[in-house]
Amino acid sequence: MLKETIRQLVNSTEKMSMAMGGQLQLAGVSAAEQKALLGELNNKKEKNSGYAYMWG
Amino acid sequence: MNKCNPLIGQKMREQVSRWFTAEPLARFTGMFIDDKLRESIKFGQLTVIHYKMFGGSGDEVYAAAAAVELFILASDILDDLQDQDAPAKPWMQVPQSAAIHVASSLLMLSQQAMMECTTDNKVRIALAEMMNTQLLQAANGQMLDIMNFAMDEQSYLEVVKQKSSALLTFACMTGVILAGQPQQSIVADYAAEIGTAAQLRNDLRDLLRWDEKSDFLQRKHTLLTMYLLESLAEGDRWILDYFEGRLSIEDIESNRERFAETCERTGTILYGSVMSRMHYNRFVELLDSLQEASPWKTSFLQILNQEIA
């Protein structure tokens, strides 16, 4: 389900914006997956460059 | 933790001086150790920090960390010889027969160094048993990786667990046992999470590069290449055709930017980042649940976040 959610996000700028703002309900995604996904999206938003390779 | 690096390096060199009496063996090994010490010795640092976390306080840990790093050096050499993709490394610039011999000699030297790091026979036996168990597991994982064996996500994560996580467990558990403690399952659990997180991060790097280390150009099955192949649009058909051998590298060598764009557009990069972060988060949760780790958490995270060569 995480994979499907990611495919939906990258295909919809609206859904991606909502997810980055924490406003999108992520049905079927576990709490651990959701935390990691939001962590990566926030990281991208803050750095405004590709997804992080590092965690820091 | 970086201040322990010279001590670990010194112990590595002492073992070489003592046991490698053939001049070329000592000379080549010395060159290889010099190269290793210029880069990362985070496995040895993990041994030291676990020794301290679990109550150890002597200097014997530097000899144990040297044993760990001697094995890691052997493993690095063999890995590069198998992959033939690191021409700048000193072991790739000497006759291959010599490099193979140094690596196999280092495997034995690491065992000897581990046996000599303590005079307590109970600890020595526990170290030997743990070392052999973890390194045999890593050997199985490495073989599956060489043969590109994983065909689905679950089997890939199993290979990663065997290949990468066993070495991390070996490094961490050496410190635990040397401190006089029994093996800790939580340490093995979080080592597995660190290993998986780090491997997925490396997979991201190796997906996007466009040289002999590229997982895509090498048609390597990873979590990310599998996700990518499942996510292709009609116009991306060339990626599947290359991966399945219907196109050659000459057919696609000018497609680097197209490939990077496809990885971004399909969410492959995001998927890899999320999966890596999820395993890292799980490691941190496990670390937080371990009371002994509390004073050492910052140092532990610093070791892990050093740049990997």
Descriptive notes:
The complex is a heterodimer of chains A (56) and B (309). Chain A has 56 residues and is an all-alpha fold. Chain A has one domain (2-45). Chain A contains three helices and no strands. Chain A has helices spanning 2-10, 13-20, 31-47. The N and C termini of chain A lie far apart (26 Å). Residues 49-56 of chain A have low confidence and may be disordered. With 309 residues, chain B is mainly alpha-helical. Chain B has a single domain, classed as Farnesyl Diphosphate Synthase, CATH 1.10.600.10. In chain B, 72% of the residues lie in helices and 0% in strands. Chain B is built from 14 helices and no strands. Chain B has helices spanning 5-19, 23-38, 42-53, 60-83, 96-116, 121-146, 153-178, 185-208, 223-230, 237-243, 249-252, 256-265, 268-288, 297-304. Chain B is globular, with a radius of gyration of 20 Å. The two termini of chain B are 18 Å apart. At the A-B interface, α1 and α3 of A face α8 and α13 of B.
- Main beta sheet of chain B: strand number and arrangement? none
Radius of gyration of chain A: 11 Å
Residue stretches of chain B low in confidence (pLDDT < 50, at least 5 long) are none
What's the helical proportion of residues of chain B?
Answer: over 70%
Show unreliable segments of chain A: 49-56
**With helices defined by DSSP (H or I, 4 residues minimum), what is the helix count of chain B?**
14
> Kindly, what is the distance between the CA atoms of the first and last residues of chain A, rounded to a whole number of angstroms?
26 Å
- The overall pLDDT of chain B, averaged over residues, is 95
- Quaternary state of this entry equals heterodimer
Question: How many beta-strand runs of chain A?
Answer: 0
The structural domain count of chain B equals 1
Distance between the termini of chain B: 18 Å
| CATH level-1 class of chain B | Mainly Alpha
